[in-house]
Design a protein that fits this description.
This protein is mainly beta and 158 residues long. It contains 2 helices and 9 strands. The longest helix has 6 residues. It is rod-shaped, with a radius of gyration of 28 Å. Its main location: membrane.
Length: 158
Amino acid sequence: MQVKTGDQYFFGGYSFPLNDIQPIPSQRSFQGCMQLLHVDEQLVDLHAVEQGKVGSFSNVNIDMCAIIDRCLPNHCEHGGRCTQTWDSFKCNCERTGYSGATCHNSIYEQSCEAYKHLGRTSDTYWIDPDGSGPLAPFKVYCNMTGNITMILHHGQAA
Ligand SMILES: [Ca+2]
């Protein structure tokens, strides 16, 4: 197989002339860091590019890698899993018992009384006595008849 290349190379993205009738591709340009670029086994002199002697560039910082780890420190609370893009981070709060952008808000009520106020009947519920505080939620049996009692299941209290 023979591959013939053109006389122009695009790294990380490409631009179209203003009057080009071709649709602009939906693919976003590269975000990240590259080093030691070679074309035809020749190291590209990025300083010559920077000085305008060769090619052109835009939205590029030469001699610096601006990658920021947006998950270090991890802003997700209560064991939420952090994922990141070039611009932002996201928390996956699945199975943490908390919700919100940083898994801050407890999804459980703080007491059996709170469940009773919601009209719930005697049953087993997850409660989080300190709400968004560090204490993990746990399961209790709430007896809603008469005086509300909370029965901890053996071995389940945090
Ligand atoms: Ca808590």
